[in-house]
């Protein structure tokens, strides 16, 4: 299907049943602030996500300062450290990565890449963004609430999450966190419905599902997963709110706290873990699948080669999406479970490695003998492959019960998930921004600054997280304010910790360079022209750059081929845009 | 979207039968589901997501029912109604369920008349549906009041496991909210139908999308879903 020759399409009539109802803004407010244009919403989502992500970045510096130089910073006491960990983890995973990939890239790219004028329900789409803003504001409010934000860990496990020993447990922290999550889910659902329906029902002529760029496949599958996984978190959040506010005991067993018998009793803390991880594991792939998709397009475009095994790539994305709903309890090996369950979840976890490995091989085979342009997007794409493979391999270790049990809650786990779902997706986000910035603004990002940014970030991330594997194997625990003098921790480990912290600050500084580049290039960047990379997908074929309201001119483009016609022998250029008809003679 | 001519899938991929043709169909030009409008597709996807919400609530309820250490109150005693000195187990619930199921009937008829562009009958049937829905919520409020008078609270009750009250208020409350939202939407859509928005294609205030009779059907989808969920709540909470 991808490669099938498409006939001249004259037989298919125009369909403007719903297209014509594009919303036209009348004022500055409805154009740039309360905009219903998916492109503007996408940029709004991205900027908000980056803004809140900076908070998480600063928190990571503070944590690293404490870990590297324990006892030096008085204001980072144990409660504060826990609050930093929690907010850092939650912001990074949910409010930065999920929002940026689906809300940001999703909104900007889905209509453009599919040849649609906008999302199917722009008004709902706009609401989605504003509810997200509200969720972020509630989250930020918890920093200023009495008692500060919650320190329960990003997993928010009860009972500790709502007890007085945990920062924010008996104050506002946990309440605001749960409320914010519920809001985020509601907002996301509004957007997610739009993305799914746009992909399913609003493609342009000739754009079959099997001709969609892999970026769209990744975002689409991730959105479907999110629509099915977030409900579990939503329900968990509602039940925990009731436990905390009304004194119900969904998750609370009977407890004695500070010598006092609490009024709770009979609830199941494990139930929360199941609900949380039924969301939490798919969440990993909700950020990974868009990354997979985007990186496929970056590699094909910048290596001037068709993606290897397109169909296999699509099926792998779908298979990973489906499988990731039956592996969640691999996060609960240490919670205690029937050994047969452990066996089941370990098996399913290892099975996911198969489609994942297929994708990695296909990326490598796409690069193989390609005309690789080592520009910034390509560098980030390569960086992604390296860090992702690294994190994937340690994932195989942790997927096995017997290996996971001793390694659980050590720095090894921190190293693993930062590699696989921290650094790797962030690499793709950067690659994506360097790749699409010219379309969004009409100007190129500065190449030199970009290269410095890449090398410092990539090497730095390695220097930060690679040694953590070793610390974890030594037994250094995760979520510890201060490991102190333990017999199993040699002095050199403390030196290593200090080293990691210094690198973390340097890497952080490099991100400031990136932000500067974003702002600087807006005015001073080189003019990009409509298609600076010579890419095939529809967003590069728009009549205006940046694309105007309605994306395409009076006529929507008609798609004649898949998205990967690079370096086709005999073609005039080394790429053939998706909307370029076949030369007359060759049409079927 | 009645004016969509079927896009010939055959032109895009040769029909080979079996799985390949299924895939070809689904991945056909422009629409995965031919003849399904955006609004309807969106409602279906939303309902799928909402199904997961309710499933999680119900699974959560079943789990705490098993984890709690105190006996579970007997639903047929708790939910009985005294009429003229005799105790009828589950009487109120039976009536509520009957009312809600009937409302699905009137809703289905409303959809039917909507497609015949029969303004009056559509509106009347939608109002009847809304009325049944409101009655349901009213009876639920009555039941809540009764139980609260008897000492049931989300955190305790006189008869046994506190999770009984917690799950009861949470699940019926969440479902009741769905019904209430449905009633509000029914009233809004009925008003639009009555005003003739669906014939004139008048644009919605917020969405600036022109009105179509199909909106009645989309509202109906939601309504039937809420009824269906109730059947599960009824079976799992009251009958178990
Ligand atoms: C400059 C980059 C980053 C640094 C230096 C950093 C550092 C840290 C540190 C020191 C911890 C606490 C370890 C512990 O004591 O348990 C942590 C936890 C965590 N980080 Fe990062 N991080 C970075 C980026 C990210 C990114 C991009 C993500 C996105 C997935 C992420 C997700 C998390 C999560 C989920 C936790 C666990 C929180 C918890 O234990 O509740 N981090 N990070
Ligand atoms: Cu997992």
UniProtKB/TrEMBL annotation, chain A:
Annotated function: Cytochrome c oxidase is the component of the respiratory chain that catalyzes the reduction of oxygen to water. Subunits 1-3 form the functional core of the enzyme complex. CO I is the catalytic subunit of the enzyme. Electrons originating in cytochrome c are transferred via the copper A center of subunit 2 and heme A of subunit 1 to the bimetallic center formed by heme A3 and copper B.
PANTHER family registered for this protein in UniProt: CYTOCHROME C OXIDASE SUBUNIT 1
Q: For this protein, what reaction is catalysed?
A: 4 Fe(II)-[cytochrome c] + O2 + 8 H(+)(in) = 4 Fe(III)-[cytochrome c] + 2 H2O + 4 H(+)(out)
The record's Gene Ontology cellular component field reads: plasma membrane
Q: How does it sit in the membrane?
A: Multi-pass membrane protein
Q: Name one GO biological process term.
A: oxidative phosphorylation
Q: What class of enzyme is it?
A: translocase
Q: Which family does it belong to?
A: Belongs to the heme-copper respiratory oxidase family.
Please verify whether the record's keywords include Heme: yes
| Domain (Cytochrome oxidase subunit I profile) ranges | 23-560
Protein name, as recorded:
Cytochrome c oxidase subunit 1
This protein's UniProt keywords: Cell membrane, Copper, Electron transport, Heme, Iron, Membrane, Metal-binding, Oxidoreductase, Respiratory chain, Translocase, Transmembrane, Transmembrane helix, Transport
Q: Which InterPro entries match?
A: Cyt_c_oxase-like_su1_dom, Cyt_c_oxase-like_su1_sf, Cyt_C_Oxase_1, Cyt_c_Oxase_su1_BS, Cyt_c_oxidase_su1_bac
Record Pfam families: COX1
What organism is this sequence from?
Roseicella aquatilis
Molecular function (GO) terms listed? cytochrome-c oxidase activity; heme binding; metal ion binding; oxidoreductase activity
From TrEMBL, chain B:
The keyword Zinc-finger is assigned to this record: no
Q: InterPro entries annotated for this entry?
A: Cyt_c/ubiquinol_Oxase_su3 (IPR024791), Cyt_c_oxidase-like_su3 (IPR000298), Cyt_c_oxidase_su3-like_sf (IPR035973), Cyt_c_oxidase_su3_a-hlx (IPR013833)
Output a single Gene Ontology CC term carried by this record: plasma membrane
Q: Which UniProt keywords apply?
A: Cell membrane, Membrane, Transmembrane, Transmembrane helix
TM region(s), chain numbering: 41-64, 88-111, 123-144, 164-189, 221-239
Location in the cell reads: Cell membrane
The membrane topology term of the UniProt record is:
Multi-pass membrane protein
Domain of life, per UniProt, equals Bacteria
An example GO biological process term is: aerobic electron transport chain
Whom does it interact with, and what assembly results?
Heterooctamer of two A chains, two B chains, two C chains and two D chains.
Q: Which family does it belong to?
A: Belongs to the cytochrome c oxidase subunit 3 family.
Provide the function of this protein: Cytochrome bo(3) ubiquinol terminal oxidase is the component of the aerobic respiratory chain of E.coli that predominates when cells are grown at high aeration. Has proton pump activity across the membrane in addition to electron transfer, pumping 2 protons/electron.
Q: What is this protein called?
A: Cytochrome bo(3) ubiquinol oxidase subunit 3
Instruction: Name the source organism.
Output: Roseicella aquatilis
Write the lineage as a comma-separated list: Bacteria, Pseudomonadati, Pseudomonadota, Alphaproteobacteria, Acetobacterales
